[in-house]
Write a structure and sequence with these properties.
Blueprint: H1 13-26, H2 28-68, H3 75-121, H4 128-170, H5 175-206, H6 212-221, H7 226-252, H8 261-296, E1 299-300, H9 303-312, H10 323-326, E2 329-330
Antiparallel strand pairs: 1-2
Length: 333
Amino acid sequence: MDMEQEEMQFLGLYGIYKESSKLIFSFWKIFTKITLTLILPLSFIYLAQMEVSDFLERRIWLTEVRLDNTQVGTSRYHKLSDLLSTEWAHFFLFKAVYLTFYLILSLLSTSAVVYTVACIYTTRNLTFWNVMSVVPKVWKRLVITFLCIFVATFAYSVTTILVIVSIAYFLEDMAGPLLILTLILYLVGFIYLTVVWNLACVISVLEESYGAQAMMKSRMLIKGKILITMAIYVKLSLPLFFVQFAFQRLVVHGDLRSVEMVDRVCYAILCFLVLSILNLFGLVIQTVIYFVCKSYHHENIDKIALSNHLEVYLLAEYVPLKSKDVQLEEYGV
């Protein structure tokens, strides 16, 4: 990064985008290798599961239609019922396998990009093989952080559902406006939790904290930058949603819309490449946001201590950096 630590606090929406783009283009070789190794498979798995899920759902739907048109109690009915149960089991098994591999690749990609950006920041000598040797040593910490945010999100969603049920049952006259307000507040809260999780992942790599501690640090760190971080998340989510929507309509359901096979393949490749670029850009941005938030709170990262911390990752035995080493010292303003 060419920018001084003290100056990063003044970066706004455009400034964070610009700084992230400069990092990717300036160090395109290492980011290209990370993309080819981790992010492309991540994007491929995400899009491929949409195609496979649609195929399995169509089979289930056809079996349900045949079952509805079959007399209850007949041998054919029992066979179709068993077949339907088997197809649902295959569907859920596929989803479980997909989510497992997607989570692993997502966390590996996050650790690789965060480590790379931090090495660039500390001007350490960086090679692709160094990055790949570090990734397995840190992703377990990210798993714990993910599980914590998953529990928090689940509890938040269950609470919201209970609130919605209570409104619908006890406040029937005002149910409409209150339900809309509740859904809006839920969406805002969900975005906030996602932002906290993204920053907590960076903290899990660069500091000794992980899990619930990383989430608490993340909450403290984004204070003063909440609107910018949430705006960035929304702006990055919109093109991701568009890619998913386009892939669903033009590739997965392309046969229903009379889209030629050659065109479907071209659309699939385009969506695949765009999704990979967006994933890389998003991971770099969340690491840049970490440094921006640190700077905003007038905490100056000791580059030597951070560099030593990153070097420890390359040793056979990983020892997490202590708070007093990477936890930033305040500088005068």
